[in-house]
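User: My collaborator sent over this chain with a note saying "see what the structure looks like." That's all I know about it. Can you take a look?
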Amino acid sequence: MGITNVNEQGSAYGAAFRNKPVYFMTGKETEAFFEGKMCRNMELREDTCTLSSNNTYRRQHTTYEVSDKDKGSTFLDLNFLIKDETSSLKGSLSDKKDVDFYNFSIPFMNFQRNCFGVEVYIDMPEGCDYDVTLYDEYGNQVGKAEWDGQGRKKLTVPDWDINTNQYCFKVENGNGEEISPDDYYKISFHVTENKEHEKTDAIREAYGNLHGAYSQKDENWREYLDQYNAVLKETEQKYIKELERLHQKQFDSLPEEKKYKGGRTVDELLQDMADGKDLNDAELEYVKIFANLKDMEKAQNKAELKNSFSDDFVKDLESMGISRDDIEGMQVRIGSNGDVAVDGIEDEGVREQVQKLIDEKYSDRMYQYYIGIADSVGDLSSNTYQYATDIQEVRRYLKGVTGEDISLENLYLTPDGKIGGLPDKAADLINKTKDNAKIERMKDALVDIIGKIRISGDLGIPDFTSQFQFKDGAFSVADSGFAVDMDALDGRFTPKSSGNMYSDMYKYQFKKVL
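Assistant: Without extra context I'll predict from the sequence alone. Here is the result:
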């Protein structure tokens, strides 16, 4: 297949065509552009090198490697695929129980959402029919992929408003059949004309009037703000009605045997799931349609930790001659640097074997369960969540490279953009290695951590310990919280405004979960 360099005249990338929105390059896109690495038909690779990989839904800042044996790798986020419709991401499910999450945001101005729509295409592996579900930034389920008659599935991003900007979709093997990790799916995007722009004409016009009055220092600009807020509140109610209409349509389209006819609420069914009880097909379909993403993922994580994970763990112990009763009452702690500690086992030899097993095979999976279940982590805002989980990722990596704990407070950015304050071995890897997805991820995380440490001042670093207990034959999370004031920390990262057009804008009552 032919490759066209983006510097050539006629390239689609970055062009402000009349029938397309105007895009702005990210820092990484700009860097790749000037290095001559940006071209058509690029293939982004699924992230498999980070601690949480793509098994968790809160992954706003993930970048994906594009490999080129001649020019070297570049790293781009999923939003790039909206800007360049010729490129795609290649991924696969590792086994029949694996799920993959992908986050993206609409990379053009809110007012352009009134004119353009976004579609997601998923080319399936031969013989496979994966479920692909779209969620908005509030955790609402807002679409299920359907076959489009061209051998692929399609998701359409809702055009209900122009404020909701962040989304994620989940790829899973819904029928539970065996699959191969060599069965690859392909993700691409397409920008369309919004043929139902009248749904958002009012909010676009109200915002335009407000922005015009404020920028021209019109003494009556607050009257335009009141008008805009009124339209926002009306749009919020329309959003809720559209959501309810979609969910009812999805429920009505189910086969009769999969329509839930019981009287239990979504929360009650999720509690059954979290307790490890199996939901029947009708209950499961009901939950998939109506449950919030955050609540459903937490319930599924609890169930997996209690049932399949605990069973797998015990089977490994039994092969070593250790029984389930031998570890009853055990407590496990996994520090932010990855160190594992086990308490509550009287036999020292057994305790050491258990600790070694967790350290060598299970600690990363347990960490993923912890961040998916512990409210102290799950309830963090996106900025603070990213900071706290980046700390875990970086501490583990630096400990693995150097064999010692590195003080993050002593790190800094040099004038040429390198990471200063690292031991020589780590400095060489981080600052000199190219074309390595893992190190690129660590570098991005370190830059963000250094910036947040500077902003947070004396509030401290948000380390946390992943804690578990083994009771009644199964694992559960013991939420250890944080030693620092996370509300105060979040306040430092949240931009403050007062007395301007943004400070008194109405905010949707939905709580963001992405």
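A starting point for your reply to your collaborator: Residues 1-18 have pLDDT under 50 and may be disordered.
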